């Protein structure tokens, strides 16, 4: 059989060389953990922010138009990691136009990140009251319920989200995380294996599923990530995901020191808009709080 392959880019080759420094086994230690260059604001983002600032300075805007601009600027601030400024924009947008499901949804995520779970539930409920087809509000509420220790309700929300797209590996992973903490590793593994068997398993995220199932090792996961990476943006995004889900595994095993290191690595690429980056900080805060 003829084998065709895509040559590694320079960035991917460097990452693969770094990943090869990983040592497998119970005593594994990292000499140099694989990392991407942290993402930086782009010229387009900065120009877009400046244009929104100019528009908001106008006196002839309707409340609806001003609310939309505050929402858009909030999203830009959020993508750049300026969460306090983003929250101010979202609140201002909501004060001008209260019937915005997307704004309630992002505020619910912020409440979850800060550990204000009751406020998060209310925000997601408001989203779903305004738009009962807002599937990401259901997912986000499920994650908030998971972090709030309400596993049965979290499972139901995340199961509903999974059933909307059974081929999305991340929906399987979050269901697995809830089931593992709620019902135990054995039952969660079996459910994950069954769902994978009934899915179309194409795309990067399925390698994370295979890591949880023990099909591939940590080293193989990172080597595959490096080999498939096409640019720094993609590498930063995938490393954010890989480190977060590896951290969740080590944390469940009781290796909190390694989990803390991995959560920090998940945040190191500045992929602010990813769920994994958002909740890595929450996990770090929870681990710090539990320390004597």
From TrEMBL:
<comment type="subunit">
    <text>Homodimer.</text>
</comment>
<comment type="function">
    <text>May be involved in cell division.</text>
</comment>
<dbReference type="InterPro" id="IPR019734">
    <property type="entry name" value="TPR_rpt"/>
</dbReference>
<keyword id="KW-0802">TPR repeat</keyword>
<feature type="repeat" description="TPR">
    <location>
        <begin position="101"/>
        <end position="134"/>
    </location>
</feature>
<feature type="repeat" description="TPR">
    <location>
        <begin position="67"/>
        <end position="100"/>
    </location>
</feature>
<dbReference type="InterPro" id="IPR023605">
    <property type="entry name" value="Lipoprotein_NlpI"/>
</dbReference>
<keyword id="KW-0472">Membrane</keyword>
<dbReference type="InterPro" id="IPR011990">
    <property type="entry name" value="TPR-like_helical_dom_sf"/>
</dbReference>
<protein>
    <recommendedName>
        <fullName>Lipoprotein NlpI</fullName>
    </recommendedName>
</protein>
<keyword id="KW-0449">Lipoprotein</keyword>
<dbReference type="Pfam" id="PF13181">
    <property type="entry name" value="TPR_8"/>
</dbReference>
<keyword id="KW-1003">Cell membrane</keyword>
């Amino acid at each position: 059989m003829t084998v065709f392959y895509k040559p590694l880019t320079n960035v991917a080759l460097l990452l693969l060389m770094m990943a090869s420094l990983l040592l497998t086994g119970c005593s594994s230690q990292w000499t140099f953990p694989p990392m991407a260059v942290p993402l930086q604001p782009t010229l387009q983002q900065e120009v877009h922010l400046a244009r929104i600032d100019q528009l908001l300075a106008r006196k002839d805007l309707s409340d609806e138009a001003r609310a939309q601009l505050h929402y858009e600027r909030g999203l830009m601030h959020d993508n750049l990691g300026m969460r306090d400024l983003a929250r101010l924009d979202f609140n201002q947008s909501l004060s001008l136009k209260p019937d915005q499901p997307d704004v309630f949804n992002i505020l619910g995520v912020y409440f979850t990140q800060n550990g204000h779970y009751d406020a998060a539930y209310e925000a997601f409920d408001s989203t779903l009251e305004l738009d009962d087809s807002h599937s990401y509000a259901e997912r986000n509420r499920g994650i908030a319920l998971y972090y709030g220790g309400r596993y049965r309700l979290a499972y139901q929300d995340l199961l509903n989200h999974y059933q909307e797209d059974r081929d999305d590996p991340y929906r399987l992973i979050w269901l697995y995380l809830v089931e593992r903490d709620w019902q135990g590793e054995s039952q969660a593994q079996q459910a994950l294996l069954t769902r994978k068997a009934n899915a179309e398993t194409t795309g990067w995220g399925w390698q994370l599923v295979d890591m949880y199932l023990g099909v591939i090792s940590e080293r193989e996961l990172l080597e595959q990530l490096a080999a498939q990476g096409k640019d720094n943006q993609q590498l930063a995004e995938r490393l954010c995901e890989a480190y977060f889900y590896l951290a969740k595994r080590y944390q469940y095993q009781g290796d909190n020191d390694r989990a803390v290191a991995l959560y920090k690595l998940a945040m190191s690429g500045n992929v602010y808009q990813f769920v994994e980056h958002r909740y890595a900080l929450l996990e770090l805060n929870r681990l710090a709080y539990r320390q004597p």
